Amino acid sequence: MMAKGLFDCTGKVTVVTGGNSGIGLGFATGIAKMGGDIAIWARNAEKSAKAKAELEAAGAGKVVAYQVDVSEERNIVDGFEQVMADFGRVDCVFANSGASPRYNSVFEMPTEHWYEFQKTALHGAFFTLREAARHMKARAEAGEPGGSLVACGSLSLFQGLPGKMEYAASKSAIAATVRCLAIELAPLGIRANVVAPGLIMTPMMGEGEQAKQVEAYFAPTIPMKRTGFPSDFEGIGAFLCSDASSFMTGETVTIDGGYMVRP
């Protein structure tokens, strides 16, 4: 048995929404490598089965993949009941499910799209964090404080993007929500933080030749001269799940190759 070290996640149960690919799977993989137990919530059962096998191979304790659509509050409440039944506890949650923006101008965006987008990106993320916090609070009141809530942000927290209002609004709102949770839940030892990725090559960015073109176009604009990959989120995932981050709360961590601090 290899010593897990500073970011040990053994015995911790983590729920990752949208955890079967992209950045969500990156977070989950880091926790798996540190021996944690993982519940994947996603809609595509085939992708989830593949992710489950990958996480087990990476060293996770127990992995269960659930089909949960976080655009409906009821599904989230039921989802946590199921996790509690199967694992007995929730230590860490990554509210990572979202969608990519698809318009380039405020004048193109249909009203219906604005409302529909928030169901997953904002409301789903909020209900995921709130319901997780309920279970963590109950555990704290039973004598075992602690827990980690994480929302996936984006650089649209800091920068204006033409036509991406629905996306930026959801990310900014959930970041503000996280700061409120950080203050309210701190006395219970529960922390809440945001991870804000820069340009990361995920399936959302396209596949094959399209992905290569996106990468070639954006890499020169990033100080590190490369785009990010889901594997770049393994370390921060394990850190935020583990007790190593127990005094860090209310923070937004950018993982962007230096993009936000360019001169």
From TrEMBL:
Pfam families associated with the record: adh_short_C2
Alphabetical keyword list: Oxidoreductase
InterPro entries hit by this protein: NAD(P)-bd_dom_sf, SDR_fam
Give one GO term, molecular function aspect: oxidoreductase activity
Q: Which domain of life is it from?
A: Bacteria
Ranges that cross the membrane? none
Q: What is its EC number?
A: 1.1.1.-
**Similarity comment:** Belongs to the short-chain dehydrogenases/reductases (SDR) family.
Q: What is this protein called?
A: SDR family NAD(P)-dependent oxidoreductase
Q: What is the lineage of its organism?
A: Bacteria, Pseudomonadati, Pseudomonadota, Alphaproteobacteria, Sphingomonadales
